[in-house]
């Protein structure tokens, strides 16, 4: 999968800019705060319909302006796609090949992307929300129907939560809860299944990468845990019982206590929690493996590699892992965008296109 060019208008610190990419390695180099990450954010936003960094689209508009516009030409399976995105006053308009799109699921997953930033360390270090977000974002890319599944689940969750917050009468709440629980069980079970299956694929890929990066004496383990259960069958069998058991507690605490919105993925290195016991370097390498596993899973399922966006991650890795990563991206057809403040880290690579980024302008150097 390829991006050929990107045009920005009033996006972040770019008032107007066009950039043409090569099919191999593209390096965006510049001092801090010049607009390197903003380029990657623009690509990600077009493909995923969301920013990787912020929830409010208004933050993406060039300060003092009223709207932003992005356009890029992509290629996948020898077909060409022009994606456009326009945002103004809380409304966004998306077009593919000049036809308007109504829903994210109509275009997310069409061209895939893997974004790796230093903040991804939070997948290991932060709470369960980050890990659920990680697995859901991967699922959305290979299985766009997961978007509507999640949206339905969130809607049910909100409705049930409103009911629990409003209800003063236990008997009335009980009746209505039965209805919402039935829907929560049906949709929640499908969310759980998707996440278990994807975690297993990640474990297989990531485990292989991890042994390559660290040598075979180290191992890692990913385990999706739903409702406290480590196996999919056990979790699904226990789900209705858990909803029943917790009904009184949910009414009392006025909160939805059971469902995949409370699940987690346990990440272990050599049998111990990576969140609590792994060194910062081990955590970084583990995230690197997770991201490369994402690349491999998408390639396996879609039969083309996604576009890889590496945001200032080279300086975070030691020499050995950096070499491993550079070798990985140099092999076979993986279009990669790398941001860096120091070209020295990547100079040795074959024929990269280098772009100098300075105060919201981009100039191709070689
Ligand atoms: N909505 C906006 N309008 C105008 N400028 C913005 C907007 N949002 C962020 N910026 C500016 O964009 C710049 C940050 O760009 P970016 O994050 O791409 O930097 P970078 O080159 O990747 O830097 P670093 O090497 O520090 O990561 C900052 O100077 C910031 O003030």
TrEMBL record:
InterPro entries: DNA-binding_RecF, DNA-binding_RecF_CS, P-loop_NTPase, RecF/RecN/SMC_N, RecF_2
Binding site for ATP: 30-37
CDD domains cross-referenced by the UniProt entry: ABC_RecF
Subcellular location: Cytoplasm
GO biological process: DNA replication; DNA synthesis involved in DNA repair; double-strand break repair; SOS response
Alphabetic keyword roster: ATP-binding, Cytoplasm, DNA damage, DNA repair, DNA replication, DNA-binding, Nucleotide-binding, SOS response
Main localization category: cytoplasm
GO molecular function: ATP binding; single-stranded DNA binding
Gene Ontology cellular-component annotations: cytoplasm
Domain (RecF/RecN/SMC N-terminal): residue spans on this chain: 3-351
Database matches in NCBIfam families: recf
UniProt xrefs under HAMAP family: RecF
Function description: The RecF protein is involved in DNA metabolism; it is required for DNA replication and normal SOS inducibility. RecF binds preferentially to single-stranded, linear DNA. It also seems to bind ATP.
Family affiliation: Belongs to the RecF family.
PANTHER family listed in its UniProt record: DNA REPLICATION AND REPAIR PROTEIN RECF
Protein's name according to its UniProt entry: DNA replication and repair protein RecF
Species name: Syntrophobotulus glycolicus (strain DSM 8271 / FlGlyR)
Gene that produces this protein: recF
